[in-house]
Amino acid sequence: MKVLAVLGVLFLLGILFLYVLFRIVFYHPFRLRPAVRQIPDSNLYRAHQDKMLRNIEDMEEASFEEVNIFSMDGLRLYGKLYPGKEGAPLVIFFHGFHGMAGWDGYGMFKLCQANAYPLLMVDERAHGKSEGNVITFGIKERYDCKLWTEYAVERFGQNTDIFLAGVSMGAASVMMASTLELPVSVKGIIEDCGYSGPMDIIAETVKAMKLPVKPVCQLIKMGARMFGHFDLQADTALASVQRATIPILFIHGKQDSIVPYSMGVELYEACKSPKEWVLIEDADHANSAMTDYETYEKEVLKFMKNL
């Protein structure tokens, strides 16, 4: 009986450990979400905070409409729609993990405002004003991307060209969405520092923390299944670009400290659809546009206008 009692306690402790790990990696409730002006004091943003704050002010002063859709699992998802000139392509933008459009959308907002392109800046599930507490690294977010494109077609009609754009997790999500049945008006994807797959970026993070990669990743994967009800290996950006038919622009910073530069190269080389590559030499993760906006704007506009 004592052995059974000990085993029972160990089992419960194991389940508790998995749950705590799940909360650390995936859980992001409203109370943990910062305000847009609370830019993290990290190496990624520290050198760019002044220009980011000025851009946030421009976002707040510009005309926009709050819009909402519902996800496949019933979450109300929020976005800001900035108007543009009639007939111009619409860009739908998706931010990164624990990020927000006001930070990661620096370059795309500036570009769209300068060229009078309509821009829909999305709060992804479990971020900003959108509902949900669990981030799935693109597994469920890819379907949210698809639903936003369907909303755009209903709103603007089938003759409005649509471009999906994303940074980091948002980039991985739009790449994973590329093989879903998207409207024909989706003409291209602009991915900036996206990772090759959910487990790949989790493994990179675990390795950076100097923890044993394989056992920790298996525990994280198990927790996602048990408490989040999703499979981290259900899809990857790498597998998606190998089947993609939509043109993709790949942007990556050579100094990326989160998603390795080599991962961006791997995605580009694996892509089977028409593709372009942009290297921002001095950029760290998620700050390509802030590091070299001139190159960013030139290459993104060239990509969009050539399709």
Please, could you describe this protein's structure?
The protein has 307 residues and is α/β, with parallel strands linked by helices. The chain has one domain: Alpha/Beta hydrolase fold, catalytic domain (Rossmann fold, 3-Layer(aba) Sandwich), CATH 3.40.50. It has 12 helices and 8 strands. It has helices spanning 2-26, 49-61, 101-104, 106-115, 141-156, 169-177, 198-208, 213-228, 237-241, 261-270, 288-291, 293-305, and strands spanning 65-70, 76-82, 90-94, 119-123, 162-167, 186-192, 248-253, 275-280. An 8-stranded mixed β-sheet has the order 1-2-4-3-5-6-7-8, sandwiched between helices. The longest helix is centred in the first third of the chain and has 25 residues, at 2-26. The termini are far apart. The relative contact order is 0.13. The model has no long low-confidence stretch (mean pLDDT 95).
In terms of topology, how is this protein built?
Elements (H helix, E strand, L loop, with lengths): L1 H25 L22 H13 L3 E6 L5 E7 L7 E5 L6 H4 L1 H10 L3 E5 L17 H16 L5 E6 L1 H9 L8 E7 L5 H11 L4 H16 L8 H5 L6 E6 L7 H10 L4 E6 L7 H4 L1 H13 L2
Parallel strand pairs: 3-4, 3-5, 5-6, 6-7, 7-8
Antiparallel strand pairs: 1-2, 2-4
Helix pairs in contact: 1-8, 5-6, 7-8
